[in-house]
Amino acid sequence: MKLDILAFGAHPDDVELGCSGTIAKEISLGRKVGIIDLTQGELGTRGNAQTRKEEASEGARILGVEVRENLKFADGFFVNDQAHQLEIIKIIRKYRPEIVLCNAIDDRHIDHGKGSKLVSDACFLSGLRKIETEYKGVTQDVWRPKVVYHYIQWKNIEPDFVVDISGFMDKKLASVLAYKTQFYDANSNEPNTPISNKNFLDSVTYRARDLGRLIGVDFAEGFTTERYPAVKYLFDLI
User: Fold this and answer.
1) CA end-to-end span of the chain, whole Å?
2) 3-state SS track over 152-167
3) Do you know which InterPro entries this protein is assigned to (predicted)?
């Protein structure tokens, strides 16, 4: 299956929190989008691997993505090495995305920065012909995505560009709230975490609203890029 966009997250819910408004908008325009979770989030204080799997499936359904896979890397302990890079290369060559979205380049959770660099490195290596991989016994063709963009997570990283997601904020919030074990629930008896309080859940909206304010729209999501964004004409920026 050829995808237009492939979004990676170190944990189930990273993609929903970071870029699900953009994904929902692109899908509405006919783009084919997939999500790859690197880990099962099994070290999370709340919930477990099974509940995270069920929640990820519901988040994918809400967004309408074509496919969602979990690579089952070790939560908290995966590293950016050849073995992990090769697994991601296989995924990139399998789905052949034009655009890859991945974790923030620096963040509170150590897996986010690690996942960001791991995916970015694998995207480059995936274009090298002397790295041979197989999928279901068939040698894969090389593929390098045209661009890699990093969404913003816990830290307020200054974006290189923002995407207007007005009209898709409700779908973003619905996909986030699919993770019932992770986020604010006044009736939950689970331990509190940095993302389980109401302030964090509210921040999903007020960050999007503030980024939208800066560009004169209702809601937006921000991204950083590894190279200069290019436009053909000045009027493309209007």
Assistant:
1) 34
2) CCCCCCCCCEEEECCC
3) Bacillithiol_biosynth_BshB1 (IPR023842), GlcNAc_PI_deacetylase-related (IPR003737), LmbE-like_dom_sf (IPR024078)
